[in-house]
Amino acid sequence: MSDFNGKITLAITGASGSPYALRLMECLVAANYQIYLLISSAARVVLDTEANIKIPASPEASSKFFTEHFQAKPEQIVVFGKEQWFSPVASGSAAPKTMVVCPCSTGTLAAISQGMSDNLIERAADVVIKERGQLIMVPRETPFSTIHLQNMLTLSQMGVTIMPAAPGFYHNPESINDLVDFMVGRLLDHLSIPQDIMPRWGYQK
Question: Would 183 be classed as within a structural domain?
Fold first, then answer.
């Protein structure tokens, strides 16, 4: 029997917004979830640029890096390479039923909306959709073109939750971290994971 409360696939792509992904990982580790982590090549560049985090090249070294970074349990964070087609996330018989793409580039959005599984991130999302699981996508782009909006509509009609990185201000944020927590708190709500990092409407400080 697993020592974790559940499993979730987290994909990080090359859109700006890596602090959202890092904070979400931190919260998932604290909630005792096992994370299957997928990171695109562009996301590695963005993580270095936005968070000064240089991720090792191999999946094994990356897993160790994130385990130490978040002080996670052994095997709580497992990184898979973009072409590890025999990983659990590539098959409906083994993949977690829940996946978050955060942040989600518009290229990834387009590929998933059209079922074009050219890498493990796209295949993992395709698996969750076909298995009628929960897929949440966090696009970070502005403005959205008609193409972007059409792709989001296509995915929404399939049951995918589209949650743009658009933090609110009703909780009177005092820092960038407060804005990040707004989005991560909403993500945790949709994942049915208890959270107290964001005050709810009517309970502002």
Answer: yes
What's this model's pTM, rounded to 2 decimal places? 0.95
pLDDT at residue 148 is higher than 90? yes
Does residue 88 sit within a domain? yes
Q: Which two tokens stand for residue 111?
A: 């590929």
Q: Return the axis-axis angle of helices 106-113 and 120-130, rounded to nearest 10°.
A: 50
Question: Would you call 165 exposed, middle or buried from its count of C-beta atoms within 10 A (0-12, 13-18, 19+)?
Answer: buried
pLDDT tens for 192-204 read: 999 999 877 766 5
In a domain, 201, yes or no: no
Using a CB cutoff of 8 Å and minimum separation of 24, what contacts does 193-201 make?
193/27, 193/28, 193/31, 193/33, 194/31, 195/27, 197/27, 198/171, 199/171, 201/170
Q: In what helix (H) or strand (E) does residue 141 lie, and over which residues does it extend?
A: none
How big is the chain by its Cα radius of gyration, in Å?
16
